[in-house]
Amino acid sequence: MTDLPRPGEIALDQDPAAQRPDAGLVFIGHIETPWTSRHECPRSGRRSDDLCKVHLKPDYAPGLASVDSCTHLILLYWMDKARRDLIVQAPAFDSVTHGVFALRSPVRPNPIALSVVDLVAIDGPTLTVRGVDCLNGTPLLDIKPYFPRNDSIPDADVGWHPNRTHPDRRSTDL
Ligand SMILES: C[S@@+](CC[C@H](N)C(=O)[O-])C[C@H]1O[C@@H](n2cnc3c(N)ncnc32)[C@H](O)[C@@H]1O
């Protein structure tokens, strides 16, 4: 899936997908969603009410012990259909370019995505969750508990974004 470059975008000389990997990953399952094209997917799972299923491979099911006590989970998944070579990008909603590490774009050297999801139900190796934003069949990398005291920073901001938390604060104030 190669998109045409937008003005100002910069691609790496060597696609990370073509390099010898520094580490290996194992997919522990996959995510079942209603979406088969990127345009149907919500841009952020927190804006979606759709229920989705997280299917763990059976060997990993014992790792779900005590997960039923969690209200929210962090899912890490692998954006398998994303190109990996764009290091400077213009998001669809913004003509200005930004470095990939200032973006939540799926297009990145290691296409790892995360979502904080509501845990709705557990049935054996299958979780029902609300709050993901990936294509049907997206490979699952990890599941972690969401700890509100550690993981929530209400005062945090992304200064370049139109929906920034503190429009009056300049990024140089940080
Ligand atoms: C903006 S990303 C955010 C991902 C994640 N919530 C994060 O913050 O890391 C979500 C978008 O990635 C795209 N996407 C979803 N699943 C994908 C996949 N398996 N491969 C490539 N792109 C995908 C869709 O366009 C979706 O709207």
Care to describe what's here?
The chain is an all-beta fold and 174 residues long. The protein has a domain at 29-147: Elongation Factor Tu (Ef-tu), domain 3. The chain has 1 helix and 9 strands, in the order βββββββββα. The protein has one helix at 148-151; strands at residues 10-11, 29-32, 51-56, 72-78, 86-89, 98-99, 112-123, 126-130, 138-145. A 6-stranded antiparallel beta barrel has the order 2-3-8-7-4-9. It has a 3-stranded antiparallel sheet with strand order 1-5-6, with no helix packed on it. The longest helix is centred in the last third of the chain and has 4 residues, at 148-151. It is globular. The chain starts with 9 loop residues before the first strand and ends in a 23-residue tail after the last helix. The structure holds S-adenosylmethionine. S-adenosylmethionine binds next to β7.
Q: What is the C-level CATH assignment of the domain at 29-147?
A: Mainly Beta
Q: What is the string of SSEs from the N terminus onward? A: EEEEEEEEEH
Oligomer: single chain
What coarse outline follows from CA principal-axis ratios? globular
CATH superfamily of the domain at 29-147: YaeB-like
Q: Report helical residue fraction.
A: under 10%
CATH architecture of the domain at 29-147: Beta Barrel
Defining traits:
single chain; six-stranded antiparallel β-barrel; mainly beta; three-stranded antiparallel sheet; 1 helix; globular; binds S-adenosylmethionine; 9 strands; Elongation Factor Tu (Ef-tu), domain 3; 174 residues
